[in-house]
Design goal:
alpha+beta; 11 helices; 12-stranded mixed sheet; 31% helix
Length: 645
Amino acid sequence: MTAELVRGQNHTLPQTRLEIRVSAGSPVVAGATLGDERGTVRGAEWIAHPASHRVPGLEVSRQAAADHRLAVDLDALPGSVHRVTVLLALPLGPGQPARFGAVAAPFVAVTGLDGTEIATFTLTGLDTESAVSALELYRRQGVWKVRAVGQGYAAGLAGMLADQGVAEAAEVAASIQEAVASGLARSVTPPPRTSDGERVRHPAGPPASGDGGPAAPAPPGPAPAPSDPAPARTETSGGPVNYAHPRRQTSAPPPPPPTAPPAAPGQPAQPVAGDATGWSMDERLYNQIWGMFEDLARAVAAYRSAVDFAESRMDQELDRALSDPRSRIGGAGDRAREEARAKHDELTGRAREALERDLAQLAAESAVVEPALPAAYAGWGNPVWHGYRVPMEIPMALRIGDLHLPEGIGLRIPLLVRLPLERGIWVDSGRTASEAAAATPGDRLRTLAMETAVALAARLLAVYPADEFSVHVIDPAGSAAGPLAPLVDAGVLAGPPTAGAEGVSSVLAHLTRRVDLMQMAIRAGASDALPPDLDSAEQLLIVNDFPHGFDDRAVTQLRYLADEGPSVGVHLLMVADREDTRAYGPVLDPLWRSLLRITPVADDHLADPWVGHAWTYEPLRAPQGSRVLEQVLALVAAARRAGYR
């Protein structure tokens, strides 16, 4: 399956003899550089370009063109080469575009020798840049991978080569442009591309929670184009990393294949798993789930509207019938009341019949979709977890619970949040408005809240590659030892749960420093200057029993992490009762509003601004007596140990 990369995404290469195909809307110069362990190009002999189109293991085009094929043999590279960077530049000359923002976004594909695509990348978001590092093939622990870079340079080829350590960058860039100018007349322009629209973007806007904070993702509706990339971070291996999901394409996705026979006239269509648009089955299932959410929201909204109309109409007819004193005497008034109620019952009956039909169709679709879900979208009771294997790439989204409405109490819609997380999560351990919370003792509610946080952390660990997600725990009083046991016993935490004021201060200082360094590296474009001990994996901080054990400085650091952390891969998972923080006054209100609030028991706190529903959220729990969570964590721990050897 082809991996559609976004900026910063990487993918393992299954073979060492490859082609790199470049397609652009106008002629571009294609080249490549060889880098050592630090990515430094040691000299001009390590650069393949039109004036010197061949180096050991690599051959590029001799001219500027709209389409290129670069040949790569990774086994033939010198032993000191650890990185191959594919470069694109605009040729100089009258009538030539001066910046990539004025031409169509270039498309780059890594393929096998038979033409089978391994990974693709579209270089969007360029503006004043006239040269760009498109891809890099790099060696890590003996395995070659490809990373989508997309780093542009307004200073052109000279600036890009200088950034890679080339001593005479200006002279080399000039020789490349001279060679291009001599052969520019031979460059060709491809036929115009079909207008398929921009990349599909899945909406991530949330309905508001019942207390004014953000909550569940909003219903999607038609998928608009993504013009805003996800927040970026920087890895120690180089380059800004975009945390958007890796399943994006640059054109509208194809329609789903016809996998079910057409329905008979008058009969509803038979539901099919993945019956939605998308480039991959995961994307189709993602879209289908949100389509089910939208269908349920609309069906219930139509039913409620019809009931409200029937009641309003009945009230109006009764008012008119009884406004004449003469109708109150004899049988005229009784007949008017009976007719009004009969019309009301007929309207509500029709509405209920339509709702039941829609609910039955959605239930049938859910019965087909649930067994087909990948682990990231599946509940703990899904058999897919029994065949779990640690993934190589992060999924598009993660299921963190279920949603339902009172009209369809038996129908559960998975609540999916996009990965990487765009904001932190708050598990409310206090009293909520639901009957389930009111019937649960306070101590038990706090325990359930921590268990919910642990299960969510386990799911995040399970859906990320083994070396790309770390979990820290702050438990100031050590009161969460029981719920934390699955994470502690499996050995998947970055360190033991932290207790005491000194421990809290140490963990917060460590993560705050990481956010500061990442942000400075992004702004300065100096990812290579990051400390070697900096963990480039995404970080999750679980905070139990907040605000107990936190001083003013710690509270300020938490607010900083909540605001600035997600953009550089640091996320909060708070377990707290908001009532316990009233002593701080309004200072913590921005913190709560920035977090996605979920509850450890069923609660209808998710307010849907699209149609005004109050959705009931239910957390995911492993089946009674099941040890699936422990088994999954054991596999994660084994993969992490194997990766550290």
